[in-house]
Amino acid sequence: MREKILVPDIGEFEDVEIIELLVKPGDQIKVNDPVVTIESDKSSVEIPSTIAGKIEKVEVKVGDKVSKGDLILNIDS
Question: pLDDT of 23-32, one tens digit each?
């Protein structure tokens, strides 16, 4: 089943930069495995997966700006 991982609500931020991709298409991940690192003015935060499965497609790249609800990747669960 194809599912999506979105940027969660992790406080008051908007348009924060992705500074690191921690997964690539074909990777098998588990719940709570980190998938990307974002950086705001105040801190760097790893975004964990909420789903276990195989990564189909990463929809973001380093340097992209994301906000709550933006699509990070598609996963086959």
Answer: 999 999 999 9
